[in-house]
Structures are given as C-alpha cells and as structure tokens.
Write a structure and sequence with these properties.
It holds the Pfam family Aldedh. It is built from 16 helices and 23 strands. With 486 residues, the protein is of the alpha/beta class. It has 2 domains: 278 residues, Aldehyde Dehydrogenase, Chain A, domain 1, CATH 3.40.605.10; 193 residues, 3-Layer(aba) Sandwich (Aldehyde Dehydrogenase, Chain A, domain 2), CATH 3.40.309.10. The chain has a 7-stranded mixed sheet with strand order 15-16-17-14-13-19-20, sandwiched between helices. Helix 7 links the parallel strand 9 and strand 10. The chain binds nicotinamide-adenine-dinucleotide (NAD) and (2Z,4E)-2-hydroxy-6-oxohexa-2,4-dienoic acid (2VS).
C-alpha cells in the first residue's frame, strides 16, 4: 500500500488534518493506497512557499543557471524513467507502450524545450523619433508572472502537468500544482527529482485533493496566486474563470473537445483507418484531441466502417504489465458509469451499433476494473447527444458525406473547436479544409504529431490562449516596456 504525500517547500508532508482519500486501480478496483487530502492549510503553506521562493535563490538565479537546472530536471526524469512509467501505469492502467513511448518522454521534453526557448528568445526593441531629433529607445523585458496555480487532469497526467510546469519554471515563476485526485503519483515523484537536482525549496509544490470547495478551488481563489493554468473540462474552466476574476488574474485554458475526423475517398485507406483508430481509441478514448465524430466520404463509407470495426475487434485488453496487451481500462468506476450511460443513450437515440456498446468479458481477476468496449455507431442525426457532447471514452459516431462544403459545416457545428484530423491525398483540399475548420489544431494524414514549438490550444469553448514554443511565454511572463530618452 502506498501513501502519497503533498510536496510543499521541498518536503513530503501529510495533511494537517490527517485526512486522506483512497486510490484504486483502474484495472481491478483494488485499493492501491491512500493519498493525503489537502485543504486550505496546505494550499496556504504551498502558496507561501512559492511566494517566498520567488524572492529567494530562485528569483535571483541567473537565466543560464536556471536553464541548466531545468535540463537537470529533464535528465533526472530520464534517470528515473522506469519509476515514472510504473507510477503512471499504476494510476491510469494504460498500456506500457503508450506511457513509455509517448507520455513519460514528453515529461522530460517539456522541461528541455522551454529551457532552450527562454535562453534564445530575443528582446523586443523599438527606436523612436522625438521632436528634438535625439530619439528614444524602447525595449521590453520579460518578468515572471509570479506564483502560478497549475490545475491538471488525469488522462495523460505527467505529460499535461509538465506541459505547464516546464514553461512556468523556465520563465522564472514558481508553481503550486493541484494534480487530478485520480492520478497523484507522478506529480509527487517529480518532487523527488526536484530535490535531487537542487531546485530550491518552494519552487515546485504539489497539493493533493479534490476540485470544487477543496484544494483545487482554494488554489484558484488564493490572493497570492498570480495566474492560473488549467487543463480539464470546459465546465470546470467556467468555474475557474469566475474565481480568477477576483483579483483580475490571468488564465490559460486547455478544455474539452468533440473533434471531427474527416476521411476523403482519395485517402490512403489503410493509413486513414489506422489513424482514425488511434485518434478515437488510444488511451481508451481519453484524449482531449481524440476523434468522437467521424465523417467519411460516401464512396468508401461502408468499406471504412467495416475496416474500423475489424480493427476495434482485435484489441487486446489487459494490465500494462500483461504481455501483448494494447488496450487499457477507463480511469475510474465513475467514468465507466458516465461512458456506459452514453452507450445506453446512443441506443435510445436510435443508433445502429456497429461494434462494442458494453463491457468486455474479462477474466475474473480483472472483472471489477473500469473496462468498456471500443464502440462505433452510425445512423444518428447531428442533434443526438452522443454526436454533440464530449464523452471522453472509446467511441465514435461515423456519418457519410458527399461534398467538401457539406463536411465543413458538419465539423464546425459544435461548441468545441480543439482539433481535427483530415485524411486525403489532395493537398489543395487539405489546405482549404484547414483554413475552414474552426479548431486550434489541424492534422493532415496524421494525428497527435507534436512539434512543441507550435501554438497549441483550442478555439471556441475548447480553450483560451495558446501554449507551446514562444506562445507559452505570453502567458508565463509579463512584458514590461522601458523607454529611454536619448
Ligand atoms: N484541451 C486540452 O489540451 C485537454 C487536454 C487533456 C484533457 N482535457 C479535458 O479534460 C477533461 C478530462 O479531465 P478531468 O475529468 O480531470 O477534468 P476536470 O475538469 O474534472 O478536472 C481537472 C482538474 O480540475 C480540478 N477541479 C475540478 N473542479 C475544480 C474547481 N471548481 N476549481 C479548481 N479545480 C477544480 C480537478 O480536481 C482536476 O485536478 C476532458 O474534458 C478533456 O477534454 C483537455
Ligand atoms: O489529452 C490531451 C492531450 C493533450 C496533449 C498536449 O497537451 C500536448 O501534446 O501538449
């Protein structure tokens, strides 16, 4: 049994109240351990430590040294790679190859990229004319925003948390992280790496606990938290934005999606099937960028549906440690209930079930886990709730289309606008589609192919702001202009 503690001011501490909550395995619902449940006392202590660190060694540290320290953090993650992989596997139950090849390496990369960017970013400068002819020189300096509240979700916990902590620290801020209550392990483990490489106490703090009326909300309401970066549900973003209004704090939001995958008849068929399969079912469909609406051009519709169905029916359910398993459970029993309620609703709304639709037959030792089948529906109108609402499960609805203009209208008719994946061999068509679809991220003949220098974020109700590359600096630093009369 594990006991996961907060990491505050460089130390692993329990809650003052002694309160804890349970962490159960998504694979079999077995009790894995307990987690300290933080409240106002822990949030106050973490924010005070973060504020003090801003004025201490961290605040005074030259950029070069800070950059070197963040490279050391990345190397420290790599050194403890197996521990991070094991912790993330235990928390999420996702297949070893996803965690070891995609999610944990990104944790290290998230520190390196922003360390390099902050080292190389040029300063903005304007020379201006003045009536006396002598002129004036303007230059802008970047200052850290201060204490950043980082609120992160459970679906790719280490990747998504470090995607915020990396740039925040690179820019000289300090952080108070409230990881998802479902996935506390890797954020805590990162505290060990921070100490091992000599990051000053108070720079990186972690408080565990819940969201509303609890540690999450308390971070977002704290007077000394200067800005809040959040990844999670749009509804939670709305609550956090209201909290941030008090004190006029800045927010950066990466929120929900109901992303469209668009497959043209001229696509590379096998690549499109595999691409849509990954985008809809990787991580058991628990990816914000994932595809839950698929539009396939009519000449290949039947063939495509049959091929995707066949692909779904060969997944191998199992624990991350089971040889050959490539498909994990959902994160929790609660999420399983939500996903299964959508599976039921699809049928009530008149869907044709192509595959899945329920719970797989699992061996006795895994029967209590949060397993659900990959599921495909056809035949629903665009007004059906499973076509409109984010389910965040391994499922998609597939609908035929005829014309490019028609599919643009279908793809855009949703309150979300995070990403899209388009499959065609006609690049002119791909460029037109990319310009016409209201999303922050378009992939053509690919999905989740990430260059960390590019702007990342959602349109419409999928987010506010862009992170990635120099765009992260817009949020994690404040530009101050200096004007010198010559
Ligand atoms: N756009 C993106 O990049 C992106 C990436 C990953 C996940 N997501 C979205 O995240 C969601 C799944 O994650 P989730 O279920 O953990 O999201 P969630 O919004 O339920 O929780 C996210 C975090 O917010 C905290 N929280 C909840 N209520 C809060 C409140 N009132 N104040 C402060 N903190 C609060 C939670 O404890 C957790 O740490 C999906 O909607 C998914 O699309 C988006
Ligand atoms: O589930 C969401 C995955 C989001 C991915 C990123 O935020 C990223 O690649 O930076």
């Amino acid at each position: 049994m594990s006991h996961t503690l907060h990491f505050i001011n460089g130390e692993f501490v329990p809650s003052a109240s002694g309160k804890t909550f349970e962490k159960r395995s998504p694979c079999d619902n077995r009790l894995m351990g307990t987690v300290a449940e933080g409240g106002q006392t822990e949030v106050d202590a973490a924010v005070a430590a973060a504020k003090a660190a801003l004025h201490g060694d961290w605040g005074k540290m030259p950029t070069d040294k800070r950059v070197a320290m963040l490279h050391a953090v990345a190397d420290g993650i790599t050194k403890r790679f197996d521990d991070f992989v094991a912790a993330e596997e235990a928390d999420t139950g996702q297949p070893h190859h996803v965690i070891a090849h995609a999610f944990v390496p990104r944790g290290a990369a998230n520190f390196k990229i922003f360390a390099d960017i902050i080292k190389n970013v040029p300063a903005e400068s304007f020379v201006m004319d003045t009536p006396d002819g002598a002129g004036a020189l303007n230059y802008a300096i970047r200052k850290p925003k201060g204490v950043i509240g980082v609120i992160s979700p459970w679906n790719a916990p280490f990747l998504l948390m470090t995607w915020k902590v990396g740039p925040a620290l690179a820019c000289g801020n300090t952080v108070v992280v409230k990881p998802s209550e479902e996935t506390p392990a890797t954020a805590t483990l990162l505290g060990e790496v921070m100490n091992a490489v000599g990051v000053p106490a108070g720079v990186y703090n972690v408080v565990h606990g819940f969201g509303p009326d609890a540690a999450g909300e308390q971070v977002t309401r704290h007077d000394d938290v200067d800005a809040i970066t959040f990844t999670g549900e749009t509804r939670t973003g709305t609550a956090i934005m209201k909290a941030a209004a008090d004190g006029i704090r800045d927010v950066s939001f990466e929120l929900g999606g109901k992303n469209a995958g668009i497959v043209f008849a001229d696509c590379d068929f096998d690549a499109a099937v595999e691409g849509i399969f990954r985008s809809a079912f990787m991580n058991t469909g628990q990816v914000c960028l994932g595809t839950e609406r698929v539009y396939v051009q009519r000449p290949i519709f039947e063939r495509f549906v049959a091929a995707l169905k066949a692909r779904c029916e060969v997944v191998k359910y199992g624990r991350p440690s089971d040889a050959g398993s490539n498909y994990g459970p959902l994160i929790s029993q609660e999420h399983k209930r939500k996903v299964l309620s959508y599976y039921a609703r699809a049928m009530q709304e008149g869907a044709t079930l192509i595959t899945g639709g329920g719970v797989p037959d699992m061996p006795a030792e895994l029967r209590e886990g949060a397993w659900v089948q990959p599921t495909i529906w056809t035949g629903l109108p665009e007004t059906a709730s499973v076509v409109r609402e984010e389910i965040f499960g391994p499922c998609c609805h597939i609908r035929p289309f005829d014309e490019e203009d028609e599919v643009v209208v279908l793809a855009n008719a949703n309150r979300y606008g995070l990403s899209t994946t388009i499959w065609t061999e006609n690049l002119k068509c791909a460029h037109r589609m990319a310009a016409a679809i209201d999303v922050g991220i378009t992939w053509v003949n690919s999905w989740f192919l990430r260059d960390l220098r590019t702007p990342f974020g959602g349109s419409k109700q999928s987010g506010i702001g862009r992170e990635g590359g120099v765009h992260s600096l817009e949020f994690y630093t404040e530009m101050r202009n200096v004007c010198i009369k010559l």
